[in-house]
Design a protein that fits this description.
Helix content is 43%, strand content 11%. With 279 residues, the protein is α/β, with parallel strands linked by helices. Strand 5 and strand 6 (131-134) form a beta hairpin. Helix 2 (19-28) crosses helix 4 (66-77) and helix 6 (151-161) packs across helix 8. It is globular.
Length: 279
């Protein structure tokens, strides 16, 4: 853990982040560039507390460095800048892999036959369990299609979504923080925006040249104009996580494409990154 790496051997509710590691993380994360001095100070405090509260370890032959831990913590805490660390309650472990890792899956077909396979992934959030990340992917800022990307924000937003026990794209709403928001209206906007995105994606795929597999690298350039990664079409939970990446990493594109959904995310996260970028 960072506490050990930095020589903090006593129990504490925060880990002091050295100035050089803080500056390096900020430099590597353009999505933090437009924060005010007060916002940056609160982000640093949240990252310090996250590092003290969560146990970070590695898998494979990856050596965990203090710089890696700070980088991940800063990305993780951006969504909760105005929400608070309690939104990451109920779990304690972050496991960092060198790159993509294999996770066993099983699925039953229409006849009830269970098929087992392994899937390469860059991150996963387990309900009540650890959060898994690929360090190689944690350093990326765009997908192969050029979309905004942050696997760290993506998986931590899944943890927020899971707080009410269901990964459905509708996070729990606080009476104190989210006055005026309610689950039914949230789901209405989510479902409408999700369906509009599916229609746009279907149109692109219908116009792909013959012989190009929609899932191949050859198709990437045809998706390049989308405001976020096509993986958002998987289901509402992934739509919430993927668009949250775009909200923080490339907010202008998301706001132009789906202003009502952008406004809903701004009301939930209590932030307006598009306006922040114009200051």
């Amino acid at each position: 853990m960072l506490k050990t790496l930095l020589g903090h051997f006593t129990r504490s509710n925060a880990v002091a982040i050295p100035d050089d590691l803080w500056s390096a993380a900020r430099s590597a994360l353009p999505c933090t560039a437009d924060l005010t001095a007060d916002e940056a100070s609160r982000l640093r405090d949240l990252a310090s507390r996250l590092l003290a509260e969560k146990e970070m370890s590695t898998a494979g032959d990856l050596e965990l460095s203090a710089g890696m831990q700070v980088n991940i913590a800063v990305q993780a805490c951006l969504p909760i800048l105005n929400l608070g660390l309690e939104w990451y309650r109920g779990w304690s472990s972050i496991v960092v892999y060198p790159g993509e890792f294999l996770v066993p899956r099983s699925v039953a077909d229409e006849d009830g036959v269970v098929h087992e396979y392994t899937e390469p992934i860059s991150g996963e959030a387990w309900e009540g369990g650890p959060l898994l990340l690929s360090w190689e992917d944690a350093q990326r800022r765009t997908t192969d299609t050029g979309s905004a990307y942050s696997v760290v924000i993506h998986e931590f937003v899944h943890k927020i979504d899971l707080l009410d026990g269901a990964a459905d794209g509708c996070p729990p709403l606080s009476r104190e923080l989210h006055a005026g928001l309610e689950p039914r209206s949230w789901m209405n906007v989510l479902d409408d925006t999700f369906e509009r995105f599916l229609s746009e994606l279907e149109l692109i795929e219908s116009e792909l040249p013959e012989g190009i597999d929609p899932d191949s690298a050859d198709a990437d350039r045809f998706y390049a104009h989308l405001p976020f990664d096509p993986y958002a079409a998987h289901d509402q939970a992934e739509f919430f996580a993927v668009t949250s990446e775009a909200f923080f990493v490339e907010p202008g594109a998301l706001q132009r494409a789906f202003p009502e959904w952008y406004a809903l995310l701004a009301a939930f996260f209590l932030q307006d990154p598009a306006a922040r970028a114009k200051r």
